[in-house]
Amino acid sequence: MKDLSITVNGIHFDNPFLLGSGPPGTNARVIGKAFKAGWGGVVAKTTSLSDTEVINVVPRYGKLKSASGDVIGFQNIELISDRPFEDWEEDFKSLKKEFPNKVVIASIMECFDKARWQELARRCEATGVDGLELNFSCPHGHPERGMGAAMGQDPAQVQEVTSWVREAVTTPIWAKMTPNITDITAPSAAAIRGGAHGVSAINTILSIIGIDLKTLRPQPTVEGHSVPGGYSALGAKPIGLRMVQEIARALKDFPISGMGGVMTSRDAIEFFLVGSSTVQVCTGAMLQGLGMIDELKEGLSSFMEQHDFNSVSEIVGKSLPYFTTHHDLVERQADAKALKLSSRASRDKSWGEESLQAQTTKMTSNE
Ligand SMILES: Cc1cc2nc3c(=O)[nH]c(=O)nc-3n(C[C@H](O)[C@H](O)[C@H](O)COP(=O)(O)O)c2cc1C
Q1: Tens digits of residue pLDDT in 33-57
Q2: Lower Cβ count inside 10 Å, N or C end of the chain?
Q3: Which of helix, strand or coil describes residue 207?
Q4: Residue 128 and residue 97: Cα distance in Å, rounded?
């Protein structure tokens, strides 16, 4: 097995795979299981100060299946953690004590209030967590109260909130971006201006997973009603890759923790290639279990062997130079075509396809 370690913002990951914020990181028990299974780190389920109201509904998930029954997309209308923040403080402390070499990142979200963000950030830092992920991206529920994606869609708020947190703590800060925006590079750049050390992307994409054709009710159906929710799993990957690529090209030297639809090592490697230094997995683990980490690590290691890469950081952004504009594609194709024609014309076999004078002219350097 190749060395899969990477250091990002001074945080050492024994491998670059993290569980993304969500059900796989809802408490110390499940996070502990993830570390024992071999994950490099966990971004815990988003937490806020205890007086923030969080009331979840059931059912809150919906699946999109292909004709053969495979789950290709997933939707949730889940809120952030409904556990009191004091419980999280205990969890963070005990996790860092039991797994000092594993990375624990606290995900935090609050309303537009400096004192509350700073208190939350300081109290997390005091538990010894390795980093903070600022949730500017929760797509449903909290945006109705100006939090999550509502904040993430406003670069000025992203910058200001990030600067409050940066002022309060020295722990590395990643700002998590919403894909529900026209230009994801605007809030990403705003977070960096506010003092973030890196960016995580993407959260879920606003969606309606389906309508029940018998009852005409949207799904997931709660008391006969529903609300658009967040789309994730494989179907979200092309959008995640596109947005991570955009951020990577815009921010250049700032690390990205990429995610969206990672089910296998192949998906994860694609995220590294478009500029992610670490890769997060949420729905993939919900559908396949924590044991999927074995395939992620083995697949990454054999990819590195195949291409003779010696470290994960060598892969990061390796495919970025191959993205360009459509205009440039047209020019490249015209050039390639001309080259093909001229090289064909230069072969002895081709004499006679055109007039002798025309072929002579093509091969003359000083016409
Ligand atoms: C059920 C569920 C709950 C989630 N809860 C959170 C959350 O509390 N905070 C957060 O930042 N992202 C949350 N997410 C988003 C994921 O962390 C991730 O950004 C998104 O699902 C895309 O990655 P995936 O396709 O690997 O799941 C949640 C996703 C799911 C499916």
Answers
A1: 999 999 999 999 999 998 888 999 9
A2: C
A3: strand
A4: 9
- For domain 6-320, give its CATH number from 3.90.1210.10, 3.40.1550.10, 3.40.1190.20, 3.20.20.70: 3.20.20.70
Please indicate whether residue 261, judged by its CB atom, sits closer than 6 Å to ligand 1. Answer: yes
Ligand 1 atom with minimal separation from the 74 CA: 31
Supply φ then ψ for residue 16, to 5 degrees.
Answer: -85, 15
pTM confidence score? 0.94
Ligand 1 near 21 CB (within 6 A): yes
pLDDT averaged over 10-residue windows placed end to end, the chain, 367 residues: 98 98 97 98 96 90 97 96 96 98 97 97 98 94 84 96 98 98 98 98 98 97 96 98 98 95 98 98 98 98 98 98 97 92 77 86 83
Q: Is the CB of 282 under 6 A from ligand 1?
A: yes
State the Cα–Cα distance between residues 94 and 268, nearest whole angstrom.
Answer: 30
Angle between helices 292-307 and 265-273 (to 10 degrees): 50
CA 127 – ligand 1 centroid, Å: 23
Q: Nearest 5 degrees, angle CA 134-CA 136-CA 139?
A: 135
Nearest C-alpha to atom 23 of ligand 1 is from which residue? 260
CA–CA distance, 124 with 92 (Å, rounded to integer): 8
- Please report, as a single letter, which amino acid is at residue 345: A
Residue 180 CB less than 6 A away from ligand 1: no
How far is residue 140 CA from its own chain's centroid? Answer: 18
Antiparallel, parallel or unpaired: β 205-207 and 229-232: antiparallel
CA distance 107 to 131: 9
The residue whose CA is least distant from atom 1 of ligand 1 is 76
Q: Summarize pLDDT for 141-173 with one digit per residue, the tens.
A: 888 888 889 999 999 999 999 999 999 999 999
Q: Residue 73: enclosing H or E segment and its boundaries? A: strand 71-76
Dist. CA 216–CA 223, nearest whole Å: 13
